[in-house]
Amino acid sequence: MKVIGISGSPRKAGNTETAVRLALEEVEKQGIDTEFISLSGMKIAPCRACMRCKTQPKCAIEDDFQPIFEKIVEAEGFIVGSPVYFGSATPETMALLDRLGYVARNNGNLLRRKVGGPIAVARRAGQNFTYAQLMFFYILNEMIVVGSTYWNIAFGREKGEMTCDAEGVETMRNFGQNVAWVLKKLY
Q1: Percent of the chain whose pLDDT exceeds 70
Q2: Which DSSP string do the residues of 78-114 spell out, in sequence order?
Q3: CA-to-CA distance for 166 and 30, rounded, in angstroms?
Q4: Secondary structure of the chain: what % helix, strand, coil (to 5)?
Q5: For residue 133, what is the enclosing H or E element?
């Protein structure tokens, strides 16, 4: 089994990356392989709605999307985290998810029954809207969303501040433990 964790933050080693890595650490402790992917510095263009993905499980746009898509499809679990930018997920996150959803749904619902959930991190507010935005992706793709002791949100602006949010850290750890638990029950 494997879980892919993605940070949709343009900032490397920031709070979103920390939150996703905390969840993945707990998954690894349960003997499940993980892989972390940062979208920082990657080129993921927005979907052009060309619909070429209806004829093949591949996006027509040539950029960093396809290798990420293939890793997610091969994995049993998928976690995506995004910082909050003006009340929503980052453009990088949504470009990836829009294309991932189109290609997967147009080729037999390739994300169906994968286990995971979203994470949202913000300086002060907006996590709930972003969390809901990302949650819609999971639900629309027939994925199994795992909960925690609270919504998978955390507070922090400057690098490392998220670790000062004790409840956020606990939530990420419990989320990772629950992802592993569900995966072990299903596989």
Answers
A1: 100
A2: EEEEEE-BTTB--HHHHHHHHHHHHHHHTTT-TTTT-
A3: 22
A4: 45, 20, 40
A5: helix 127-140
DSSP annotation of 26: H
The token duo for 42 is: 């990657």
pLDDT tier, 152 (very low <50, low <70, confident <90, very high otherwise): very high
What domains are defined for the chain?
A: 2-180 (3.40.50.360)
Length of the chain: 187
44: left (phi over 0), alpha (psi -120 to 50) or beta: beta
pLDDT digits (tens, 9 = 90+) for 65-100: 999 999 999 999 999 999 999 999 999 999 999 999
Distances (CA, A) of 183 to 35, 77, 78, 179, 187: 16, 8, 11, 6, 6
